[in-house]
Amino acid sequence: MTTSTSAITPVVATLRAEVAGPVLLPEDPGFATATVGFQTYGPHRPDVAVLAATTADVRAAVRVAADHDLPVAVLNSGHGVPPRYTGGLLVVTRDLAGVRVDPGRRVAWIEAGAPWSAVIEAAGAHGLAPLSGSTPHVGAVGYTLGGGLGLLARRFGYAADHVREIELVTADGTTRSVTARTHPDLFWASRGGGGNFGVVTGMEVDLFPVPTLYGGGLFYDAPLVGEALRAWRDWTSAAPEEITTSVALVPFPDVDGVPDPLRGRHVLHVRIAATLDVATGDEVIAPLRAVGPRLLDAVGELPYTDSATICSDPTEPMGYQTTNLFLDGLPDQALSGVLDRVGPGAPSPQVLEIRHLGGALRRPPAEANCVSHRDAEYLLGLTRRTPPDATPEQAAALRAPHAEVRAALRPWSTGASYLNFLDGDGADTERVRSAYTPENYRRLADTKARWDPRNLFRHNRNVPPTAPTSPN
Predict the structure, then answer these.
(1) pLDDT tens digits, residue range 224-277?
(2) Cβ neighbours of 174 (radius 10 Å)
(3) Is the N or the C terminus of the chain less surrounded, counting Cβ atoms within 10 Å?
(4) For residues 346 and 329, which has the higher predicted lDDT (pLDDT)?
(5) pLDDT one-digit tens code per residue, 36-92
(6) CB–CB of 250/290 below 8 Å?
(7) What's the CA angle centered on 170, arms 166 and 174, to 5 degrees?
(8) pLDDT at residue 60, as a whole number
(9) Sorting pLDDT into bands at 50, 70 and 90, what band is 470?
(10) Cα separation of 367 and 162, whole Å?
(11) Angle at 245 between CA 244 and CA 251, to 5 degrees
(12) pLDDT tens digit string along 76-103?
């Protein structure tokens, strides 16, 4: 709900008096650019945006919002966005982008707006690597708060498992150093609970001595897609946890910029990242290469600083809708259901990715967090391009194939979702609930009730606070 002009005027006046960074209204130059990130479908319409220049700006913005009962949203890179909202105050953290590496302790301090690319570069100078994902321009903090399922996930676990400290501005406008010792409930909840408990202005994370990877991609043309997909499924049953892989069905357009062997083709892209030497890696993936000729075979040794080339995700902003589900298996019937609906020749062009889980992802971290569903075997995700100006009806029509795929895979679905891949209209309350076990969800709601009982931080993948108990 949009706040009236008369009500927002004193808010803006107070903010401009207390905040060093720009405070923008919808009619101000730069507002539209500041409030839209990588995901361009379904733009949000806050009443006011604060482009935070300092942690003090974040504190002031949250305090003013609380005083005026304005919901608070947070935006950095804008890859994963919550359901569309109107009104409230948006804190934009892109200018808080510092990264500090302590190579002796093998840790990095990451400010709220830093992308993974900045962390990868800073860590790489010391022969170290973070638990980053496939896309280096994703915000490191938001990615980690939602779990963080990265390139080395089977070897080291979720990124959220390796957070040491969180600097958090809570709903009362106070900055808190959140650790297992200082605020164990917030530390448990924030690592995997998204932005439900405040605005994170920085965090300390572990780094790992991984200067190089064995990694890259294998690309199979349409006639081999089914055989290669089944071979990958069979191969994952014995894959060592040093290797993390996924497969993607990608309909490449016939346009400049797409490598010539892939232009206009619907391919299977096998994505590989491993802490193995080349000889061992070649031996491990030999069954995948044995499927047949590849359009491209780009697997070998590469610096971790070049890890973005493994998946080669798009870098230009776009509109899209996503869905995802955890699976406990991928029998032939399930794979046939996938190929019939989104494989080569299917009527609905979209990108499908299946990630192999297990390994270190199954093991709880030294300090427990709320990341759930660690026993799943695979995570399936679907992405459908959607024009930024699509009407709700057009968007629903484009999203319809997602429901078809979900229905086809229901017998092998665990019923759960992964928080970071819930976007827009697919990030409703029930889908967010499915990202957690019932026990963890109740604990998150109880923690929310203690730290944000008014649900000030609700323009997100929201976990509402537990309702207060009525007196007898």
Answers:
(1) 999 999 999 999 999 999 999 999 999 999 999 899 999 999 999 999 999 999
(2) 12
(3) C
(4) 329
(5) 989 888 778 999 999 999 999 999 999 999 999 999 999 998 887 777 789 999 999
(6) no
(7) 95
(8) 98
(9) very low
(10) 9
(11) 155
(12) 988 877 777 899 999 999 999 999 999 9
Q: Mind spelling out the 3-state secondary structure of the chain?
A: CCCCHHHHHHHHHHHHHHCCCCEECCCCCCHHHHCCCCECCCCCECCEEEECCCHHHHHHHHHHHHHCCCCEEEECCCCCCCCCCECCEEEECCCCCCEEEECCCCEEEEECCCEHHHHHHHHHCCCCECCCCCCCCCEHHHHHHCCCCCCCHHHHCCHHHHEEEEEEECCCCCEEEECCCCCHHHHHHHCCCCCCCCEEEEEEEECECCCEEEEEEEEECHHHHHHHHHHHHHHHCCCCCCEEEEEEEEECCCCCCCCCCCCCCEEEEEEEEECCCHHHHHHHCHHHHCCCCCCEECCEEEEHHHHHHCCCCCCCCECEEEEEEEECCCCHHHHHHHHHHHCCCCCCCCEEEEEECCHHHHCCCCCCCCCCCCCCCEEEEEEEECCCCCCHHHHHHHHHHHHHHHHHCHHHECCCCCHHHCCHHHCCHHHHHCCCCHHHHHHHHHHHHHHCCCCCCCCCCCCCCCCCCCCC
Q: What is the pLDDT of residue 426?
A: 79
Token pair in block for residue 375: 């026993």
CA 324 to chain centre: 12
Written as six digits, the tokens of 234 are: 């069979």
Q: How far is CA 437 from CA 108, 173, 305, 362, 364, in A?
A: 30, 30, 35, 14, 14
Q: Which amino acid is at 133?
A: G
Residue 469, pLDDT score: 46
Beta-carbon contacts of 417 under 8 Å, excluding residues fewer than 6 positions away, are 324, 325, 326, 431, 432, 434, 435
Site of tokens 């920085």: 202
